[in-house]
Amino acid sequence: MSKVFILHENAEWLAPLRTAFDARGLDFAEWHLAEGEIDLAALPPLGVFYNRMSASSHTRDHRFAPELTGSVLAWLEAHGRRVVNGARALDLELSKAKQYAALNAAGIPTPHTIVAVGYNAVHNAIRTMDGPLILKPNRGGKGFGVQLFETAEAANDAVAGGALDAGPDGTVLVQRYIRPAQPEILRNEFVGGKLLYTVRVDTSDGFELCPADVCNMPEGETEASRPKFKILDGYAHPLHERMELFLARNGIEVAGIEMIVDAQGQAWVYDINTNTNYSPDAEAAAGRANTKRSGMGALAQFLGTELEQLTVPAAAD
């Protein structure tokens, strides 16, 4: 019997999705792809395959999980299986440089960014930046390795001192810092290629941001503090329609697209997460917890519908 297969490398992130599946009686299986093998001569099972591979897998000692997942996705797609967030989505998940190129092609503004490999190239790129700038690894995740510098001199000093994270692919992004009108970002959550909601994320404590329960909150935060994640019910932005077109063009069906709005009201997109997580506290405060209006609820509903509509592949299989 067909089922939903979840391709991933972090079991902790799946707990709320398992709960949403169980609540709907959906049959599912997990493929943990931190390591393993795939027989390309074999036929894949029937079902809907949901790719949740993360660019930050290397921070959990799963350095080659994305490469294994890429091989699995190629195998599945070659056999015509229904894949949610397929090879193109994985390609963009693993490279912010590729994200920016694709976003710019879709007419979505991104901060001025220079891609650099090697310390000399990073130093040269820094010298071209005027004003505050950010250094970040091309393959990151959860804000790891992101550093803000007020001047090019400070950035170059840090690089010379060895304080540079080039990430697992050795590629650094030197990016103009967009100073937000407020210390916050807006994360736009899409399920089935359509906007589900926008959440405001407080960035007062830095760049390492993750909505999931298992991600550590900043030291000293209390229940009385300003909520780090708050859903903005009814929020609409002119870029939302263009984001949906972008996702459709790139075969991405589930994603969180993050943007900053500057003091002039200009929105800049700077990251796409195709293995998006959701804040249970924010959803509870917005009256969305454990409903089809929650992130995992909407995701389970979407995958369940895709499973119901699944057709048997051609006789070639």
What descriptors fit this protein?
Dna Ligase, domain 1; globular; five-stranded antiparallel sheet; 13 strands; 317 residues; alpha+beta; 3 domains; four-stranded parallel sheet; single chain; D-amino Acid Aminotransferase, Chain A, domain 1; Rossmann fold
Overview of the structural elements:
The protein has helices at 15-24, 65-78, 87-93, 96-105, 119-127, 152-160, 239-249, 280-285, 295-308; strands spanning 3-8, 28-32, 47-51, 82-84, 113-116, 133-137, 147-149, 172-176, 184-191, 194-202, 229-231, 254-261, 267-273. The chain is α+β, with helices and mostly antiparallel strands and 317 residues long. The chain folds into 3 domains: 3-93, 3-Layer(aba) Sandwich (Rossmann fold), CATH 3.40.50; 113-176, Dna Ligase, domain 1, CATH 3.30.1490.20; 180-301, ATP-grasp fold, B domain (D-amino Acid Aminotransferase, Chain A, domain 1, 2-Layer Sandwich). A 5-stranded antiparallel beta sheet has the order 11-10-9-12-13. The protein has a 4-stranded parallel beta sheet with strand order 2-1-3-4, with helices on both faces. It has a 4-stranded antiparallel beta sheet with strand order 5-8-6-7, sandwiched between helices. Strand 1, helix 1 (15-24) and strand 2 form a beta-alpha-beta unit. The longest helix has 14 residues, at 65-78. The model is unreliable at 216-224 (pLDDT under 50).
